[in-house]
Amino acid sequence: MDLCFSCQRFNIHALSRIPGGWGTFQLKLAQDGARSGCPFCALLIESLWNKIPTERQSSLDQEQTRIFLQATTSRHRLNANRDCVAGAKKAALQIDGLRAFIAPATYKIDGQEPVKESFATFHVCAERGSFAATSRAIAGRFSGRDVQSAAFLEGIRDWLSGCLRHGRCCQTLSSSQQLDAHHTPLPTRCIDVTGDRLMLRRTADTTGSYITLSHRWNAQTASSQTTALNVLQRQETGFDLAELPQTFRDTIWLARQLDIPYVWIDSLCIIQGAGSTDWAAEAGKMAGYYQGSLFTIAAAAAAETDSKFDGLFPTTPPMLDRHLARLPFYDRAKDGVRRGSFYVYPARAMDKDYDAEVRRGALQRRGWVFQEWLLSRRLISYAAEGVYFECQTEMPRNALGDALIGGPAAGHRGLLTGKFLLKQLVNFTDSQPRSQYLWWDIVEAYSTLDLSFPETDRLLALSGIATEFQEARSLANKGGIPVTLCNVAGMWLEDIHLSLLWQQKDQSTKEVSGRLRSWIPSWSWASLVNSVSWAFFRQPHPFATADACDIVGLVARDGAVYQAPTPPSLPAGKPTADYRPVVDSHYPPSVEYTGLLIHCHLLPIHVWDHFTKKHLASLPVPAPDPNPDLGDGDEAASSTAIRKISLPNGEAGSPWASVRDVCGWATFEDPAFQDQRAFWTEDRDAGGFEATYALHVIILRPGSGWLERGLLGGGWKAVHMVLFVRRVYEVDVVDSGGVERYRRIGMGGMWGGAVERRLSRGKARTVLLV
């Protein structure tokens, strides 16, 4: 359609000359133009006027109503310097957007307000090589509708060029190393894509540039993988592109178009199959591979299990449903001579699309992909409806220039319910008073994801992130002297007391759930396939903690016992804030630890029925909400319902010698202890009923903030945070030297004078938690 007379004379330069930056457009003329088929008038009416309720429209004097327009420049614009020509004026407009709203013509003079429903934003772009682009008046670039077009590929180059100037994007996640993505150490093997045939090259100890692929394995992946049978052939004579799945072919096509010589794909570059030891050698290096790559391609569309689509490139053009208007561009240096065109189309909030297609898509639900996503410095996600660009510095955006609304500065949440749904917010180098909060966020996000082989991969798929976290925290001390941190089964020894008190989330939607049959000890969150949380310690009110037990040694998977350099110093019943775990440097950080030697108090307890939400809210101590979706009086019946705890009056093994005075709450994640009968099973070795114990870990007290506000009298009391454990009688490979062994079955809190008297009168002892 042709532009109307007014739109044919629209001059983008005029907006920069008007005081305040706002130009006006007569609403009546825009309505007439839209009815006659003018694309720009139709765009304005559709985006502004049609959003206003009918009753509000009728109250406006349309003859005296205007459309206000303002040209904008975004700090996230594409790199336009590539299109600059010699002699271009320095005072370039660099416009990449328009803001618009409807208001009375005199609204600034008589104090009237704009129509609140009418606000809209638009993208402004120009084709590469056009005068609008080379004069730097228009900063946005039109990449066309085809994601395989030359214009779109040029847009990727622009994005990549801009990102390589970001400081954070050219460092490892720990900021301990600078990265040169064009001259980086190459993986052990890469696919050389420069020739007609693909070659599997041994590239260890060389440098260059390469891209990585993050994808979900399927039947086609398995049929094309590199094995001991074909590795020599692929290295010596190469193999054809036709042998590979479409996703792999598209990745290699993209690398060739961008003149990138190497591609790293796990199933092709790591020797797979029974008898191969290559996976064990390469798994620990994958973190470096993803951090060192020029960018990672995320095959989001091909990962959807309910779709037959295989490949990278979406079948739906990303701008098919956008109203695009083409406007004339006038050269202000040549007395307004027309020099080509530029484009305007509506901007959209991409939150819902990004959340559905990328962050909550099938690909990102895989455990291994979490590490690939977080470690990759730059990520291009090819989803079913479009392409998304993401790096460590800027907010994610799509190929049309839409970005997430809000962001960390605006406290953005919306559909993005967790902070690790944005790479920009993952910063290991931020100074924090409690570094465990950052690690908890990582684990909470990761624990919700699925693994095909959780017994072997539960900790392995997080090992690259753990290495970077360890590196960052080791360099973060104020003295500047690196400190070796010890990772014990997915937790850090420096804050092991709080970290031990994880809890299972209410329900699991994972493919597999329950305890793993692996070497991972019961006290580690990684022993549970279900998602976990430390939400209890994210109370809105300040609190202070004091350690109530002492870690006196660690037991390794091979049975080696690493004792603390000093004897336990825990006085019976008097834990203070002075107690800390033994120094991390005493324990080898690379050892797989399966046991904790703990000097602690153990209290026998009885477990009763569930709390209701109403009763939980009335407790004198804080307690977790078992199910936010239930009403206040409903029974919290779920896999992690909160149970009542009491102390026995008589022998620990007798279920009848007890009063049911509630002195604690408990949540049990162990699948064997979800039924009340599990707590009264007969122990044939002990000749009675087996006891459940509370292992005292920390004391939680109201913080000084409550005291300063005079709320101490009405606030919650001190709560003794505990692990619930059961005695382990069966023989295993660990020689604990006669120390009693216990395994964790849950966690909770206890309070009251009876509990404190039992703790003060009892004698602390050393036990082995396995």
Break the fold down into its secondary structure elements and pairings:
Layout: H1 5-8, H2 14-17, E1 22-26, H3 27-35, H4 39-47, H5 54-58, E2 65-72, E3 97-104, H6 107-110, E4 120-126, H7 131-134, E5 140-141, H8 150-163, E6 184-185, E7 189-192, E8 199-202, E9 207-208, E10 210-214, H9 219-224, H10 231-236, H11 246-257, E11 262-264, H12 266-269, H13 278-283, H14 286-292, E12 296-298, E13 325-331, E14 337-346, H15 351-359, H16 367-375, E15 378-383, E16 386-391, E17 397-398, H17 436-447, H18 454-457, H19 463-475, E18 487-488, E19 491-492, H20 496-499, E20 503-504, E21 532-533, E22 543-547, E23 550-556, E24 561-563, E25 593-600, E26 602-610, H21 613-617, E27 643-646, E28 664-668, E29 682-683, E30 688-689, E31 692-702, H22 704-708, E32 719-728, E33 741-750, H23 753-761, E34 765-769
Parallel strand pairs: 4-5, 10-11, 10-12, 12-15, 33-34
Antiparallel strand pairs: 1-2, 2-3, 3-4, 4-14, 6-9, 7-8, 7-11, 13-14, 15-16, 16-17, 18-19, 20-21, 22-31, 23-24, 23-25, 25-34, 26-27, 26-31, 27-28, 28-33, 29-30, 31-32, 32-33
Helix pairs in contact: 3-4
